[in-house]
Amino acid sequence: MPGTGPIEIEVACAWPDRQVIRSLCVPAGTVAREALRLSGLADEFDGIDVDAAVLGIFGRVVPGSHVLRAGERVEVYRALRRDPREARRERL
To answer: Containing domain of residue 48, as a range?
Structure first.
């Protein structure tokens, strides 16, 4: 049956001091939150709560239950330290 074998995906995490993109081969039907768990990035980066992390696929926020397709990149989003608009006003 097509589409039931393993698929290749990536999981990306970028903190101000470090960025990692990890390639994974996961079973078809894997969801975004499970991919983050399988990547091991939560153990490497402080502040990642796998169950509460905001996730996205190529710049678009998705629920943790999003079923992944081959070639997708799961991105872990972190909270902004400052409002970008406020920071820009302060610079001017």
So the answer is: 6-91
Q: How far apart are the first and last CA of the chain?
A: 60
pLDDT range class, residue 22, cuts 50, 70, 90: very high
Question: 3-class DSSP state for residue 74?
Answer: strand
Count the domains in the chain. Answer: 1
The CATH number of residue 32's host domain is 3.10.20.90
Round to whole Å and give the CA distance between 6 and 74: 16
3-state helix, strand, coil in the chain (%, to 5): 20, 35, 40
Q: Provide the pLDDT for residue 17.
A: 86
pLDDT exceeds cutoff 80 at 82: no
